[in-house]
Amino acid sequence: MHTTILVTGATGTVGREVVKQLAMLDGDIRVRAGVHSIIKGENLKRLPGVEIVEMDFEDPESLRAAFTHVDKLFLITPLAEDQVQMARTLVDEAKRAGAKHIVKLSALGAGAAHGIQLGRWHHEIEQYIEESGISYTFLRPASFMQNLIEYHAESIKQEGRFYMPSGDGRISYVDARDIAAVGIEALLGDGHAGKVYDITGPEALSNTEVAQLLSEVTGRQVAFVDVPEEDYRRSLKEHGSPARITDALVELYQVQKADKSSGVTDAVEKVTNRKPHSMRQFLQDHSDCFV
């Protein structure tokens, strides 16, 4: 009997990798990729056995269709002011559909008693899932290595620099490929119900150290530039970022700058039986993005 897995946020950094890795597995698994726009999900159509479904929160029928006969859910919500309500809606649909397990993409530190706003939003969603009665696993990853590509590749290529307001605090960056691997094991393996996995890479690095690795991998000098907080706030405002999101992101970078995002865990190796990708490995695998 086949298992149908719905992945929401399937075009995002982690969602895309989850869909890709699920599609490569043998066995009777049906992968349903939930996307906000069918056009954005075009690239996922190339993957074998992947069904693309459009999910519109303003259209309850589209959500019910996406959840039809779903057995398990990989839950990803976007960074938005209403992400908690979005997640509640998805959990309600999962319960209505009779889903047996939810793997939620959360964030490192979400369980802290006095955590940052981003963590508090994720923790609120986690609590709602717990109260739903559906079996769950929570993934709490550190900052993604892939953010270097998404947000900084152009300035690295054009200027040989990348800009962040996080100073030189060390960050335990993690590869989205490793997050996806842990999530898939939680979806398909045994013994993961009720577990919370703090997921990091194998080391904590400062941005200066990341710049040095970029220089070594690309063969050209790359430098890190620490951006003043007010300049970062101004940039977000100019790009239309809501005040609450801006405050939450600034708070995250303040924590990183204070070297409070440097903890390293062995969750990837414990769950997947292999070591996580190092930053050097990641940069070598994606070196063409930076040159």
UniProtKB/TrEMBL annotation:
Domain NmrA-like residues, every copy: 2-263
Domain of life: Bacteria
PANTHER family hit by this protein: PRESTALK A DIFFERENTIATION PROTEIN A, PTHR43162
Protein name: NAD(P)-dependent oxidoreductase
